[in-house]
Write a sequence for this structure.
């Protein structure tokens, strides 16, 4: 079996597995997940070479952190062999990017995760706050946390790509170590690509999440609340049906497309079952050994051409 590819995250020195474990589903966000299943899922992730786990106090109203913490502990894997990122500023109760709140936030997260430190602490969905507050108050507070050893690296996350340039242009070089972007590096929307040279010039590592565009690039289709336009939903559904007709799976193709850009250190995908872990790792292994199905990819790109890079306004999904 091919070994999971590790990729360098910007200037951090961290080498992340190309497939990252998105732990939001462990917060029973998409349906109940027992501790037993969560522990088995994380154990299988370790077995297959995944070393990067991403969560947030917002996911499942703190449940994701608690369950991930239990599962990491149960795995018995030494702490220096895996990387954990969590977030601050977004909570079940709402947004609060104040220095006071994010400073308390990390202690709460560490207690839930049963860890002494996290590798990355990210300001969560910063477009909902004041970007100037992020620059002038939140990030300086995270720098102080870095000095305490509770966090190793600092990140920012959100949907609109312009938030990243806004912040990175206003903080000293090397202050922000990583960005997490979602829904902007998939077959239907690869707008993140244009930003990669800029991010490289700033020494910032890149994590991309939602390779399946929050369910658009799946046979079952997106959840009811998905904010995409009807046109975009219909095009993605047509692409999924086309793939199925050829005996191919659009989710696998989408995952492999996202993994094929080596400038993205890790592609985060939500997982809450052993089977999901195995399928995602198999996609990566097949990509590494056999490459992507170029013919089907170009046909799918053609179907999605009218909606290419069509995004949606960042909104609160309750």
């Amino acid at each position: 079996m091919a070994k999971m590819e590790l990729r360098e995250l910007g200037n951090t020195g961290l080498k992340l597995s190309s497939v990252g474990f998105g732990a939001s589903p462990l917060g029973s966000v998409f349906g109940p997940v027992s501790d037993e299943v969560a522990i088995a899922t994380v154990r299988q992730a370790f077995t297959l070479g995944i070393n990067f786990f991403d969560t947030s106090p917002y996911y499942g109203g703190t449940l994701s952190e608690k369950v991930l913490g239990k599962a990491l502990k149960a795995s018995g894997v030494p702490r220096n062999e895996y990387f954990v990122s969590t977030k601050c500023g977004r909570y079940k109760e709402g947004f609060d990017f104040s220095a006071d709140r994010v400073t308390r936030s990390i202690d709460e997260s560490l207690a839930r995760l049963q860890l002494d430190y996290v590798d990355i602490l990210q300001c969560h969905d910063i477009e909902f706050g004041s970007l100037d507050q992020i620059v002038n108050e939140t990030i300086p507070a995270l720098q102080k946390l870095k000095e305490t050893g509770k966090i190793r690296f600092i990140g920012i996350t959100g949907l609109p790509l312009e938030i990243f340039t806004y912040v990175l242009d206003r903080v000293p070089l090397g202050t922000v170590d990583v960005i997490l972007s979602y829904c902007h590096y998939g077959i239907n929307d690869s707008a993140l690509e244009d930003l990669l040279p800029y991010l490289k010039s700033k020494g910032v590592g890149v994590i991309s999440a939602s390779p399946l565009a929050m369910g658009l690039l799946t046979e079952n289709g997106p959840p009811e609340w998905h904010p995409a336009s009807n046109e975009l939903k219909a095009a993605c559904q047509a692409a999924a049906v086309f793939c199925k007709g050829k005996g191919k799976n659009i989710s696998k193709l989408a995952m492999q497309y996202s993994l094929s850009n080596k400038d993205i250190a890790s592609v985060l995908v939500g997982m809450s079952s052993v089977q999901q872990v195995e399928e995602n790792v198999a996609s990566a292994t097949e990509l590494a050994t056999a490459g992507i199905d170029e013919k089907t990819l170009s046909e799918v790109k053609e179907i999605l051409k009218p909606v290419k890079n069509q995004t949606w306004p960042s909104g609160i999904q309750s």
Notes: The mean pLDDT is 96. Residues 131-148 form the longest helix (18 residues). The first strand starts at residue 6 and ends at 8.
